[in-house]
Amino acid sequence: MPSLFSRYATPLVTGLFLVSLISGIALFFHVGTAAFHGMHEWLSMVLIAPFVLHVWKNWRAFLTYFKRLPMTISLALSLVAGLAFAWPSLTASGTGAGNPQIAMITLVTAARPGEVAPLYHQSEDTFLSMLKDKGYTAATADMPLNDIATASGKSERDLVMTLVSLKN
Predict the structure, then answer these.
(1) CA atoms within 13 A on the CB side of 59
(2) What is the domain partition of the chain in residue ranges?
(3) Could you say which of 20, 92, 110, 145 is the most buried, measured as most Cβ atoms within 10 Å of its Cβ?
């Protein structure tokens, strides 16, 4: 069995790296995002196993890299680059660090109808009527939208889909 691992470790690392490379480039340029997102995440996770096998197979040669300055410099630069990208999210206090789209959805669904109506160029009363027409029977001016959805037997996802479907 070790010979099977040895035979396939490097080819799998190469193949999965190419998939990760191509899907990563596509994601960077926002091309085929829906097609490449899951592929990139999942196959990058699968890449871990053959990478570990590749390192295991080449352990002695791999250790010699740590005796030289280029490995130290490369690892340090990689760490600094990673921290540079992560730092804004790690140090953001009270900004809802994470996915900004989710933060915006949370903000809108926590608002009252009178606060959201102007986004649809509607008065509060017209907006409430639109919600009631979509099945949000508990819609009142004093309730946040997510509470209206819950009281109307609908989920937050249903609410977001309804808000997206409303025409200006």
Answers:
(1) 5
(2) 2-67, 102-165
(3) 145
